[in-house]
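Class, discuss our next protein.
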Amino acid sequence: MMLLPGGIVLDERSRIIESVSGRPWSSYALQNLRTTELTPEAAIVTYGAVAERDGEKYSALMSSLYIRRTDGWKLAFHQQTPR
């Protein structure tokens, strides 16, 4: 599940994949990256991001919840708050 700016809620895998298939950012930087282990199988990653694409700047606080599966860590939830 992804909660994105503008009230966008993506809860279907195909829609999430489609949402990240657009043009990449021309530059980006992550700030204050923190990882919090909830259990040996779950962790939250929080960070700030500053990015630019086509001269447009974007800045947000983000949090992502990852779950460990037999084939590796999988994103279960992601949220962005513009700043």
Remarks:
- The longest helix spans residues 13-19.
- The chain has one domain: 2-82.
- The two ends are 21 Å apart (CA to CA).
- The mean pLDDT is 93.
